[in-house]
Sequence to fold (107 residues):
Amino acid sequence: LVEEISQAGSEVRLTETPVFTDSEDHRTLWAVFVKAKIMQFDALKELATGLGIPQESIGYAGIKDAIAITSQCLSLRGVTKEQAEHFHHKQMLVLPYAYGRDRKSVV
Fold:
C-alpha cells in the first residue's frame, strides 16, 4: 500500500486495497496494519485502546522498525470490519480484508 498526494491535492493510491472477503465465522478479522514513525509495541497498545479490545486480542508475526513506514497483517479477535474502518490515528492505518477463524501467534 502506497499513498501519495498529487500536485492537485488529491490522494493517489499506488497499490490497491484488497477486496474484503466475508465468512460465516466473524471471530477473527484480518487486516493490513500500516504504521509510521511509532514503535510497534506503542502502536499495538494504541490500536487495542482505540478498538476497545485487550492487547492480547491482536495477533501479529514479527517486529517492525520504529523509524519507518511499515505494513503487516494482523489478526484482530472480537473486532468487526466496521470498528476497524472507523479507527483513526495520525500514524496508523487499519485496512480490513477478511473474516476468518484462525489467529496469528505472537512471535
Notes: The longest helix spans residues 40-51. The CA atoms of residues 39 and 73 lie 16 Å apart.
